[in-house]
Amino acid sequence: MKLATTTEDFHDYAETPAQAVDLIGRTPFRYVDLTLPHAYMTEEWEKTADACGEAAARRGLTFVQAHAYDFGADAEGHISHLPQLERAILTCRRLGIPQVVIHAQWNFQLHYAKGDPENMRAFNEYNRGLYRQLFPIMEKTGVSVLVENSCESNLGDTCYYMTGEELAAFLDWVDHPLLAAVWDTGHAIARRNDLYKDLTALRRHLRGLHVHDNRGRADEHLPPFMGAGDMDALMAGLRDCGYQGYFTFESFQCPLPDFCRTAAVKPDTSRPLLLRKPPLEIKLQVEQLLWDIGRYMLTEYGVFEE
After folding, report:
1. 3-state secondary structure of 112
2. Which end of the chain is more exposed for a tag (fewer CB within 10 A), N or C?
3. For the segment 222-281, what is each residue's pLDDT rounded down to a tens digit?
4. What is the pLDDT of residue 166?
């Protein structure tokens, strides 16, 4: 299994996706998850894509996954961000990226409740209607879309897919070869899921990962071993579900940047804030540590690949 990380690692240090790609080139990571926010998926998306491709080629990097943003849908399923999502998928084709993460859409009219099949049925139908609007461009480009799990600390009880079993049931029901799952370990840890149970429930649907840790209360995006996550359960689950993809980190909030949502107390802006953004050199040292942690985890389970 090969290690990858996300351009989101350099959210605070880059103004464009291409600049973030270039900074990853200064780390040990050679495989990249490209974040494609709506703000950059404009009518000039081709320039953005080409700049990312040039940075990757210059640094000897390979894109293996991308992450677009949400649908922006209303209760009736009208998508406000459809052009941006289509451009993200076209960007993937242009850069040879096989898959892109697009979150299922929360719905404030449907509240998550375990054991409520009617509520989940309505949520599944709502999201199937959203993803179906992407099927034509997915089929045209051959790019897969990955659905991600979430947690109450992010979206309350708006009926997101919270367990591997729930996400697998949705994908079984929709049954499209280009619609699959990415498992976010941090979201599962924040709600104290059993990672092994989640991963083995996903089976053939699991095609991507977002690996990060937290202290079991909020979505902190910390490196493994800095929170409450059971990393043995993660590795055993990946082994036993037959996962063949990349081990992709999404541990971008270390050292904690200024935009971190988990700060207990907001800073007093009436005085100078000199320590809100650690210098780039410290961030690069953290990236080295993150790579070393990943290599250790994969080596101990006999699956590490350069």
Report:
1. coil
2. C
3. 999 999 999 999 999 999 999 999 999 999 988 865 545 555 567 777 888 787 788 999
4. 95
Helix (H, G, I), strand (E, B) or coil at 73: strand
Report d(CA 166, CA 240) in Å as an integer.
19
Neighbours of 170 (CB within 10 A): 21
Q: For the purposes of burial, counting CB atoms within 10 Å of the CB of 169, is it exposed (0-12), middle (13-18) or buried (19 or more)?
A: middle
The answer, yes or no, to whether the previous bond of 278 is cis (omega within 30 of 0) is: no
Q: Name the band, by pLDDT with cuts 50, 70 and 90, for residue 116.
A: confident
Q: What is the mean pLDDT of residues 120-142?
A: 97
For residue 187, which of 150, 223, 138 has the smallest C-alpha distance?
150
Integer Cα distance of 167 and 149 in angstroms? 7
- Once rounded to an integer, what is the mean pLDDT over residues 291-298? 98
Average pLDDT of span 156-163: 89
Task: Write down the pLDDT at residue 260.
Answer: 52
Q: What's at 301, amino acid-wise?
A: Y
Tell me the two tokens of residue 212: 């990060």
By CB atoms closer than 10 A (0-12, 13-18, 19+), residue 133 is middle
Domains for the chain: give ranges and CATH numbers. Answer: 3-263+274-300 (3.20.20.150)
Spell 220-257 as b/e; 16+ CB within 10 A means b.
bbbbbeebebbbebbbbbbbebebebbbbbbbbbbeeb
pLDDT of the residue at 285:
97
CA distance 126 to 78: 10
Residue 268: its pLDDT value, please? 76
